[in-house]
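Hi,

I'm pasting everything inline rather than attaching a file, because the server keeps stripping attachments. The sequence lines come first, and each chain or strand is labelled.
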Amino acid sequence: MTAAARSRDEFEDEGRSARKRRLIREAAATAFLTNGYLGTSMDEIAALAHVSKQTVYKHFADKERLFSEIVTATVDEIANPNTDEVLNLADTGDLERDLRRFARRQLRAVMEPRLLQLRRLVIGEAGRFPQLGRLFYDRGPGRTIDALETMFERLASRDALELENPRLAAAHFNWLVMSIPLNQAMLLGEDQPATPAELDRYADAGVRAFLAAYRKR
Amino acid sequence: MTAAARSRDEFEDEGRSARKRRLIREAAATAFLTNGYLGTSMDEIAALAHVSKQTVYKHFADKERLFSEIVTATVDEIANPNTDEVLNLADTGDLERDLRRFARRQLRAVMEPRLLQLRRLVIGEAGRFPQLGRLFYDRGPGRTIDALETMFERLASRDALELENPRLAAAHFNWLVMSIPLNQAMLLGEDQPATPAELDRYADAGVRAFLAAYRKR
Amino acid sequence: MTAAARSRDEFEDEGRSARKRRLIREAAATAFLTNGYLGTSMDEIAALAHVSKQTVYKHFADKERLFSEIVTATVDEIANPNTDEVLNLADTGDLERDLRRFARRQLRAVMEPRLLQLRRLVIGEAGRFPQLGRLFYDRGPGRTIDALETMFERLASRDALELENPRLAAAHFNWLVMSIPLNQAMLLGEDQPATPAELDRYADAGVRAFLAAYRKR
Amino acid sequence: MTAAARSRDEFEDEGRSARKRRLIREAAATAFLTNGYLGTSMDEIAALAHVSKQTVYKHFADKERLFSEIVTATVDEIANPNTDEVLNLADTGDLERDLRRFARRQLRAVMEPRLLQLRRLVIGEAGRFPQLGRLFYDRGPGRTIDALETMFERLASRDALELENPRLAAAHFNWLVMSIPLNQAMLLGEDQPATPAELDRYADAGVRAFLAAYRKR
DNA sequence: CATGAATGAGAATTCATTCAT
DNA sequence: TATGAATGAATTCTCATTCAT
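And the predicted assembly:
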């Protein structure tokens, strides 16, 4: 390979090796999310990434570690952006409106096809990879409920909500908003996925029920 | 074979063949629930059932059908008893008490280890066996929510509850009661399973939130 | 089984055992002719004969002997009737007419679907069962050519034919009549089988060519 | 790999991969011709080719396609050379001599052991692989008869032959020459193969009978 | 360093044959 | 005697991982 060619290929800081690693990660993510751990072969991944199997093994010691790393990375990648920006209530003074906006955004994020697949994968492989379930929980529902708890404590201190147990209320909020479509998606698949409008209605209905139960009277 | 020998070997009407079939089903259920579809080999099942592989194949055409039949049967077996008895509110006049009793019973049933495994299995294999997800949903959450909807309509007509949408309320009730421990179980496994007392507390808290939101004022 | 039932079942000299044997033979013949030696399983044969595998093994020591016996019997069964009646020239004084009648009958017999299957089977299994090829040849082409040779010697002695080598002439006659449709059937299968009218034309054309070559001038 | 090493290992343009592929093809041809489709295992082929089973499967998707490709290639390989050179009458003016030379060459080619095996294989597997029978017919007897037909039309136009139906005459010629030894070989095997001298005699006798029937008088 | 090949095992499925009831 | 079950191996095909070039 000429120097010119190399610099063409290794555009923007990413070396050959790093690029291949990224290709492999993307291929593995797709394959694992679609077919599960046992349903995915290293050959498949190599073919999908357009690299040789040897290259896969040079970057990832074995299938288990490849899987772990891919799932971990995918959980992070999906969980991170939501947290920092989204997990904050835009405090407009209209509590119901603010909670709705939060709920809708959150529900849409959780119902992303890729995230649904990831959740199925993690649940299905919970026997083989228990630490992934823990990770997913912590970065997913756990983090959301943490954020909600903080929010709700603030709201309670302002007498907007009436809570004995803020964490419990946070969990109730979370699942009132998400449970219906999420459970349907887990079990009924994505052949007839909920439309965005339906999701919004579920979010709104969850918020309404939550406020009916927890709003300070 | 003499009649005596037969009655010794074949307990209660069950022929040799039926007994073998049962053994295979039990072995397959255990294996599939523990290790998943791809993680279970026909050899394993045969060995677990103390049966030759041939016998397995004489009873079940292939692995897919064995799996389907086992999961279908297990779903039925687990779903049925709950429905008829449990899904009825013992109407004592004390609504909160009645709903608590119902919620506790329901939650314990759903949190049975075997049922949790089954749910994980069905979710994990949703890609390969979509019809099993549908079946599980219909016999599980779907059926519970159906029963709740009927109950709630009756309660609304008696002015005990105030509902715009009984089905939505039923789903909210269901998931207020179940979501927290169920999602933990799905993702965190059963290493530190919720104790019965904790389950009761989740059930009670769900009922309380539900009534705060939906009780006629 | 009652004596009455037995006498019902064992109608006409054929005992239970003999009847089962016959059923097995028929099933085996069908299966072997259709799927070949290796392509046929003992299970298949037992199922087709509506007997248990054990019964098959009681009547036939093993698969090889079952195959040998079946093919031998089928060769005999098919070869015999033809010989005695058909292999004689109806001597009407019109040589061409007589040979045509003979040729047409012979060709139709050879082109019987079952006999074509048998020929394919014997050729295909020639490596595994060489004696069956010899048998088939002797009872089939060999016998026909023998009969023709005798006929032609008689005709030559009457100055109807002019032959140096009667056996060679007999073979030429045989294959002039049969080769075209027979080779097509062997290689092209029976999807578009020759119609009886076509067969007659091949037979007639073969006879015409034969007489043009061998008739005494 | 250095260029030197490559030229050592990879004879004449043929890469590693191509060489392996050739080895597999040769092994498969031998095995299939000897033992038939079902009688040949992929393990056998791999062992015979001194290749791992994986390598076989990397070159040929499955057994069926391997078989098809091998048989197709073998038919081509055997049929081709004969056609171009041999299927032309050396026109010396002596018709009988020319036809004899043609017949002898043709018969020897058809009676090549490998071609006999191939014919048996194709006939035996006609049920499983009907397209191979069609292919064999088209490249074998069909092509020969085509060529003969063309030749005979030319001869008829020169008044050397007297034909109503050139194609029929071509088929008669073909089978007068070949049928006797070919049928014997198909059914009686090659334990006592016809000697070249015998083959020549069959060829000559076929030509003689053909000319007696079809030569212009 | 990257590709094809090899390894060695294990999967699903089928088979011929024998045992036990 | 006849049936279902068992045996033990073989077959096609795939896999994770490693070697050699």
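Residues 16-17, 20, 51-55, 58 of chain B lie near DNA strand F (CB under 10 Å from a C1').

If the labels don't parse on your end, tell me and I'll reformat.
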